[in-house]
């Protein structure tokens, strides 16, 4: 089972997906983009290597998903 929750910034994807993962007794894999974006989806601090950081984060997330097998993940349109 793999569930990806998608939606606009600030609508509660993380809150919902954490609770769903707990209810289903599976891993929760967080979106992980909080350090780059505010709740409205705007970049909160310019990052010289934002693209590089996002690729690194995506690779980390994919590895977590592969290891977990069964999970709920909150995602955003940047994915």
What does this structure look like?
- With 79 residues, the protein is of the alpha/beta class.
- Helices cover 39% and strands 14% of the residues.
- A three-stranded parallel beta sheet has the order 1-3-2.
The gist of it:
This protein is of the alpha/beta class and 79 residues long. It is built from two helices and three strands; from the N terminus they run E-H-E-H-E.
List the helices and strands and how they pair.
Blueprint: E1 2-5, H1 13-24, E2 27-29, H2 50-68, E3 71-74
Parallel strand pairs: 1-3, 2-3
Q: What is the typical, i.e. mean, pLDDT?
A: 80
Order of helices and strands: EHEHE
Total count of helical runs of at least 4 residues: 2
* Anisotropy-based shape: flat
Report on the biggest sheet. Answer: 3 strands, parallel
What does the oligomeric state look like here? single chain
Provide the β-strand percentage band. Answer: 5-15%
* Percentage of residues assigned to helices: 25-40%
Q: Which residues sit in consecutive blocks of at least 5 with pLDDT less than 50?
A: none
Global structural class:
alpha/beta
Distance between the termini: 19 Å
Rg, alpha carbons: 13 Å
Task: Count all strands and give the number.
Answer: 3
Strand order, sheet with most strands: 1-3-2
């Amino acid at each position: 089972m793999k569930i990806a929750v998608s939606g606009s910034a600030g609508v509660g994807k993380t809150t919902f997906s954490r609770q769903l993962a707990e209810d289903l007794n599976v891993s929760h894999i967080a979106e992980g983009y909080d350090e780059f974006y505010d709740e409205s989806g705007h970049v909160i601090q310019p990052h010289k290597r934002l693209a590089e950081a996002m690729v690194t984060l995506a690779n980390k997330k994919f590895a977590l998903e592969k290891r977990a097998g069964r999970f709920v993940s909150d995602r955003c349109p940047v994915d």
